[in-house]
Design goal:
Helix content: under 10%
Shape: globular
Strand content: 15-25%
Structural class: mainly beta
Oligomer: single chain
CATH superfamily: YaeB-like
Number of helices: 1
Number of domains: 1
């Protein structure tokens, strides 16, 4: 939408941004699921999978370039043509938090370098 081109001004020095969008092709999913690295079921709010009860997304992404109305980004799983209502700068002092624990995931994170996905989200 051409009327928003001015809003993409001054991206220099902003290597990371936060997108705000609605995953318009997502389908409703169960409120509980079994993640691929463990055998117990967890609530969706404790999972990172794409199945969510709400289609709003806020991914942290790497900005590559801005060319007119075209925003080139990396590190996101978003479908081409997804409406993008807002973009915000990522500011570590506001957005990053040091935490002491991440619940059941504390036991799983050390396995990441040697764990393969189980294919459930592959197309």
């Amino acid at each position: 939408m051409p009327q928003y081109a001015d809003g993409l001004k001054d991206p220099d020095g902003l290597p990371h941004i936060i997108l705000i969008y609605r995953s318009h092709l997502s389908r409703p999913s169960p409120l509980q699921a079994k993640p691929f690295m463990v055998d117990e079921v967890h609530g969706v709010s404790a999972l990172r999978g794409p199945g969510r009860p709400n289609a709003i997304r806020l991914p942290f992404v790497r900005r590559e370039a801005v060319e007119g109305l075209l925003l080139r980004i990396r590190d996101v799983d978003i479908v081409d043509g997804t409406p993008l209502p807002d973009v915000k700068p990522y500011v570590p002092e506001f957005d990053a938090r040091d935490v002491d624990c991440i619940g059941w995931l504390d036991r799983q994170v050390p396995k990441l370098p040697t764990t393969q996905h189980d294919g459930r989200f592959a197309r």
